[in-house]
Amino acid sequence: MEKKKIAVISLGCPKNHVDTELMVGFLKATGDVIFVDRVEDADIVIVNTCGFIRSAKEESIDEILTAVEEKKRNPEKKVVVAGCLYQRYREELKKELPEVDVFIGVDELEKSVEKILNKRFQPDKPFLYREILTLPHFAYLKISEGCSNNCSYCAIPIIRGPLRSRPADEIVEEAKLLAKKGIKELYVVAQDTTAYGFDRGEKDALVRLLKRLEKVKGIEWIRLMYTYPTHVSKDLIGLIAESEKIVNYIDVPFQHVSDKVLMSMGRKYSYSYIDELIDKLREKIPDVAIRSSFIVGFPTETEKDFEQLISFLKRKKLDWAGFFKYSREEGTSAYNLGDLPEDVKDSRLNFIEDVQYAIFEENSQKLVGKEFTLLVDAISQDMKGYVEARSYRSAYEIDGIVYLKGNFKPGEFVRGKIVGLASNVDLLAEPV
């Protein structure tokens, strides 16, 4: 029997990326498929969608329609739509997209082989089949599913349900398996990593889990993503400060700093709490790199609230910050608050990004002359004679790149000295 050719398009966050890796692994385990890069060359096209905010939904719909167009040219082609968008809009998608052959929700991954290939496949331990689709030296480690924080703007609980933490033994087993595959850097991810174990009534379960992950041989760097501000405990900060493997980097999405806006967002902390947390992190972990994200144009955000956010950024000079325009999502409690005009949201987004870019440049200038251990990701296509690398200060794809002069292999750790700026976020380095 000729093997089916499958093209996979994975959209959205790292948590969704892990779901794609599981699906690909299950399908590969059958031995009946081969994977191709181009939709045109595939017998089956899988689009793993994101349904979080408007722009992500639009991107998902565009990719589905592209696959459907290909099917019109070749009716034998099968189109599969998986993930968050379908989970959220099941009936609407089935009605609007009759051309789609198979739909798979986020809670149906283990049925993907049956649904796509009409074959029985029941994985006892799904993570054993996971096919790593990131660079060969780093991987995401998803420690829980869903979220119970119930922020007023967020559709995640609607899509993925309440918090469900994975068993610690299973997570450690998966980390060991990843290390055996050559993974050197682990990204600990979840909707809220710091809530790990809360659903089981456990306190500091994340700290205990990280201590076990530190002992996994072959893993050199552990990076903590998606931490909730009030769940960043004293013990967690202490562990990051002491650990040789957990890098001095933390991703803490603050979303805003105005007390009024935070309250209407359903975030359970204040401006003064954020201020103190940043000071505490910098005091206990002197070279910590702090990443955060912020929503601009929330319905209750006034010019005064926005100005408070700007002055906070100028004062605290965060190492990394991402900004999102508020997206009004049906089913969320914030939906009833109405919406600001799009031009107001757009102008605030453009302004705040310009402010932060200047801060990035200022922060980058301070790094010139310093030495770092750099992890090589790829041979640079943009700069001949250089490789693209990162220090502990940068997460792959979302933070700045260090262009390191020389010929080094991806996955290699190299000591480098920062000699200049390639842009306001990217640095130039030479090997020491």
Please summarize what this structure is.
This protein is α/β, with parallel strands linked by helices and 432 residues long.
What would you say this structure looks like, in words?
This protein has 432 residues and is α/β, with parallel strands linked by helices. The protein folds into three domains: 123 residues, Methylthiotransferase, N-terminal domain (Rossmann fold, 3-Layer(aba) Sandwich), CATH 3.40.50.12160; 238 residues, tm_1862 like domain (pyruvate-formate lyase- activating enzyme, Alpha-Beta Horseshoe), CATH 3.80.30; 61 residues, Beta Barrel (OB fold (Dihydrolipoamide Acetyltransferase, E2P)), CATH 2.40.50. 35% of the residues lie in helices and 22% in strands. It is built from 13 helices and 18 strands. The strands form four sheets. It has a six-stranded parallel β-sheet. Strands 2-1-3-4-5 form a five-stranded parallel β-sheet, with helices on both faces. α12 packs parallel to α13. The longest helix is centred in the C-terminal third of the chain and has 24 residues. The protein is globular.
